[in-house]
Amino acid sequence: MYFQTADIEVALWIPPFVAFVISFFTSMGGVSGAFLLLPFQMSFIGYTNPSVSATNQVFNVVAIPSGVYRYWREGRMVWPLTWIVVFGTLPGVFIGAMVRVHYLPDPKHFKLFTACVLLYIGFKMLKDVLGNSNGGAKRENEARFREMVKRNTSPEGAATAPATTVTCFNLKRLGFTFYGEAYNVSFWGIFLLSFVVGIVGGIYGIGGGSIIAPFFITFFELPVYIVAGAALMGTFVTSVAGVAFYQAIAPFYPNLSVAPDWMLGILFGAGGMAGMYLGARCQKFVPAKAIQWMLSGVMVFTAIKYILNFFGY
């Protein structure tokens, strides 16, 4: 099938299939899969026009709601955390889009900076996964979590008792419990992190879940089982704003492909929707360490790719 905006020809089944496979695994860690889908579009099917960024965001818009719904149904959405991420991300994405259009038409140097950040996060997460500190306590907490999931989940997968309870929420702190474990984080720390991630997402045309989720896990020490839903929701809002912006400015660039290829984006999104729903449903049966391995792998892979691109490889 020929896609006019993307100016490529590809079999109709390939976009949804690839998006399904990617999203099934990445959604378990709060990552939509856009980080991996963008290199696939550019390297394997030859979609190199600037509109590839907007098309990637259409994938997020279509695919993410199914994963968020699954986390909500299982009682694993900490809504105050989610709204902090959303309201922090939203202004950032508009700033990022303006930076991309007016100040970074060639994002080569910014990609190198981003690669350094991603490498730091990725290797720090790998160190935490490989380290033995508190290993026994972590295994005990994870085993307790799995036992609680079994006791509080219906055969259909819905939560029979609240998994999370908010204990405090103000402009200084957010506190909540997750299956009896208490967590307390800085309101402004989460907000500022989300703001920065929104800028990055606006510049590159990616949601940012692969950046914000490891920060939540590594620096704020939040459990991956509740981080995923909030990160996906933030990615969704970023992508909606990004698609709207790129579509709006397209008429001002008549000789440049800026607006998304809607048909291709919807095909990717349809596969991603199914992958994210199943990934969210299966996440609680996958060890937290396996999800952390996956996230760190995405970080390091993306960083290395950006560095190689910077040096012309």
Short description:
This protein has 313 residues and is mainly alpha-helical.
Strand composition percent = 5-15%
Low-confidence stretches: none
Structural class: mainly alpha
Considering DSSP H and I runs of 4 or more, what fraction of the residues is helical?
A: 55-70%
What gap, in angstroms, lies between the N and C termini? 30 Å
Task: Please state the overall shape, judged from the principal axes of the Cα atoms.
Answer: globular
The helix tally amounts to 11
Could you tell me the number of beta strands? 5
Strand order, largest beta sheet: 3-4-5
Main beta sheet: strand number and arrangement?
3 strands, antiparallel
Radius of gyration: 19 Å
Overall average pLDDT: 80
Summarize the helix and strand pattern as letters. EEHHHHHHEEEHHHHH
